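Blinded run. Sample ID left blank on purpose so nobody reads anything into the name before looking at the predicted structure. Input follows.
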Amino acid sequence: MKSRILKKRQIAAGAAAVALCTAVFLNWYYTKHGVNQPQMPEVTSEVNLGDAQYVNGTNVTTESDYFTAAEVNRSKAHDTAKEYLESIAADENIDSEEKEAAKKKLIDISNEIKTETDIQNLITAKLNCKCLVTLNDSKVEVILPKGVLTDDKLITIKDIVTANSNITSDSITVIELK
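Blinded prediction complete.
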């Protein structure tokens, strides 16, 4: 009977030793080999517990995060539209008029993307701040960080947009983040 109890204790001690060794190894492996570990967001006074989060767990707390996410979303929308129009242009079951319309729309989208990028780069260079420019039909929306917009900068933005597109100043909307 004593040997059975001793054997159970030895098995329990062996299992605990294996678990401890495994934990030590995993800790060493993840810290020494630079394996990507989930990072806790830096806690500052500006972090709100209810802020939206990306899938990778980073908080959207800064204007830079907003602009980055918005540019990614805009790029995805452009890519989706281009893929759809390219599929129409390549489809043999669609008549030639629709194919030509799809090709023309592809050219229009490419021109809009180039115009958006040019305007955005010029505004960023002249105002020395991030911005986001979207072109929708015959309207332009410019989004700026909080506290940047002044009357002089508004005039500069409208001058840049009108000089680089066929859009009139009354079709330009400038928005400042809250």
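Unblinding after everyone has recorded impressions. Helices lie at 2-32, 63-90, 96-127, 151-164.
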